[in-house]
Design brief:
Elements (H helix, E strand, L loop, with lengths): L1 H19 L12 H13 L5 H11 L4 H6 L2 H11 L24 H10 L5 H11 L3 H14 L18
Helix pairs in contact: 1-6, 1-7, 7-8
The structure holds a DNA duplex.
Length: 169
DNA sequence: AGACTAACGTAATCAATGT
DNA sequence: ACATTGATTACGTTAGTCT
């Protein structure tokens, strides 16, 4: 049945993942001045928006929500904000907005572990392919690989050497 | 060519789930 | 109760965009 099918196709998927791993990162998003305005306004109100606010901002800006979390250079803006807004940030009394609800990965863990054995740094194409195969959203997959690399560094990639370049932090 | 900054990385930590 | 693991924060590096 469906489980067996997944196992059968997983080998094909894994070689595809391996091929895609060397490819480019996600295409760079260009954030327009009006979109920047929206972000800056939100930043004034709250430096640590929860999942709901981030989704709302993404909708207003017309870009995928995950980019907001990544693309906000708080340190860069901190200077501007310090000049523009005389007031220090909101008091610590303000309740923290809820974070993203934990995604249940368990049913798909095997597939990710097998992919991890091939490549530790899947590029965007490989992540999208895994997302398509598993139904787990790509941004969650990126986080999964980050956590996996941090917590299971001993599991080195297997298989023939390929051109994947170890990034230096 | 240099400034700016999105994409992506690690490290530490918070917090929900699994045992 | 504790271990595991997804999500968040802070900051550093790489590389695309723009003047």
């Amino acid at each position: 049945h469906s489980m067996g099918l997944n196992v059968l196709s997983s080998q094909c998927v894994l070689s595809l993942i391996e091929d895609l791993a060397r490819e480019a990162q996600r295409k760079r998003t260009v954030i327009s001045p009006s979109q920047t305005r929206i972000l800056v306004q939100a930043f004034k109100r709250d430096h640590f928006p929860g999942i709901a606010t981030r989704a709302e901002l993404a909708h207003q800006m017309g870009i995928p929500a995950p980019q907001i979390q990544v693309s906000s250079p708080a340190s860069t803006w901190a200077q501007d904000m310090a000049q523009e807004a005389q007031h220090p940030q909101q008091s610590p009394i303000l309740a923290q907005e809820a974070r993203r609800k934990r995604t249940i990965i368990s049913p798909r863990t095997k597939i990710f572990v097998q992919a991890f054995m091939r490549v530790h740094f899947p590029a965007i194409a490989a992540r999208e392919e895994l997302a398509h195969q598993t139904g787990i959203p790509e941004p969650r997959i990126q986080i999964w690989f980050q956590n996996r690399r941090a917590r299971h560094p001993q599991q080195s990639p297997s298989g023939p050497r390929n051109g994947w370049v170890q990034r230096l932090g």
